[in-house]
């Protein structure tokens, strides 16, 4: 065999070894990255699309696909049937309510993410003590947010609530000791901010997403807002998955990435500090 042929064969061997080496090492890295489909909707979809691109996500060996939904019920059902692996949109209390109603499967919390304080807003009154007797307060007509609104007014010292309603959701029939003889006007969540200009409405309870979209900051513009304490545990948002996957180590990595510096810097800037980082064990919610 001539030197020229040997030289060509040697080059071919190097190329072949290099190719299979890439497949074994470089190629295998991409193949072993865990693909996780995370479902979300509203502003949280933007959050997870950002997290999917972070170097920290890639370093964790995750390939994150974000799927946008139009409502929470369909998203939870998609998580039960395996269409998505993890979802990010709901409060812990909402997940418990869903589980109580669900006949097809149950969800479990992987970890906590944030508390988005609900606030009581008024253009006419600057503090709770200024709200007059027999005033009208607008609250959400959405059952989950109706309950949350009433609990906010209770913590503000304006009313008391009685009973232990099914699913933990309070409504007007649970109101007692209405100290100022307040009237509650039930409104759609999207309508609330517009009622701030209505002189017949003294104050409006508004969720943080709608507040931000209306140019309001819960810490600067509300006359009262939720605090992070035992009374607001059910209002803490979570990452949820099918109950059978609650110990999945790859899914739990998403909780760590969410609370990481890169993700938190983005969240603080985008939501003006109104998504309070809550890095608590799931046991905190359950106790």
Describe the model.
- By secondary structure, the protein is an alpha/beta fold.
- It folds into two domains: about 35-115 and about 235-285, D-Maltodextrin-Binding Protein, domain 2; about 120-225, Periplasmic binding protein-like II (D-Maltodextrin-Binding Protein, domain 2, 3-Layer(aba) Sandwich).
- Helix content is about 40%, strand content about 20%.
- It has twelve helices and 14 strands.
- The protein has helices at about 5-25, 25-30, 45-50, 55-60, 70-80, 90-100, 145-155, 210-215, 220, 250-260, 260-270, 280-285, and strands spanning about 35-40, 60-70, 85-90, 105-110, 115, 120, 135-140, 160, 175, 185, 205, 225, 235-240, 275.
- A five-stranded mixed β-sheet has the order 2-1-3-13-4, with helices on both faces. Strands 10-7-11-6-12 form a five-stranded mixed β-sheet. A two-stranded antiparallel ribbon has the order 5-14.
- Helix 1 runs parallel beside helix 2 (about 25-30).
- The chain is globular.
- It starts with a helix and ends with a helix.
- Residues about 15-30 have low confidence and may be disordered.
């Amino acid at each position: 065999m001539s030197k020229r042929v040997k030289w060509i064969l040697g080059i071919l061997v190097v190329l072949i070894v290099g190719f299979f080496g890439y497949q074994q090492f470089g190629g295998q890295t991409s193949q072993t990255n865990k693909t996780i489909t995370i479902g979300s909707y509203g502003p949280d979809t933007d959050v997870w699309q950002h997290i999917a691109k972070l170097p920290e996500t890639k370093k964790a060996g995750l390939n994150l696909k974000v799927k946008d939904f139009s409502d929470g019920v369909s998203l939870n059902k998609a998580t039960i049937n395996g269409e998505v692996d993890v979802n990010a949109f709901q409060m812990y209390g909402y997940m418990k309510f869903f589980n109580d109603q669900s006949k097809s499967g149950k969800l479990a919390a992987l970890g906590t993410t944030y508390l988005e304080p609900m606030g009581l807003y008024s253009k006419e009154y600057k503090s709770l003590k200024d709200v007059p007797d027999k005033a009208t307060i607008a609250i959400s007509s959405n059952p989950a947010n109706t309950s949350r609104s009433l609990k906010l007014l209770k913590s503000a010292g304006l009313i008391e609530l009685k009973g232990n309603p099914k699913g933990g959701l309070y409504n007007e029939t649970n109101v007692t000791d209405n100290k100022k003889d307040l009237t509650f006007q039930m409104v759609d969540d999207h309508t609330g901010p517009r009622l701030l200009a209505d002189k017949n409405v003294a104050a409006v309870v508004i969720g943080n997403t709608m507040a931000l979209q209306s140019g309001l900051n819960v810490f600067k513009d509300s006359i009262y807002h939720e605090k992070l304490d035992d009374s607001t545990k059910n209002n803490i948002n979570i990452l949820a998955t099918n109950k059978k996957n609650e110990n999945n180590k790859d899914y739990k990595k998403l909780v760590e990435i969410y609370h990481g510096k890169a993700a938190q810097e983005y969240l603080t800037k985008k939501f003006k500090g109104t998504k309070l980082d809550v890095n608590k064990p799931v046991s905190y919610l359950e106790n």
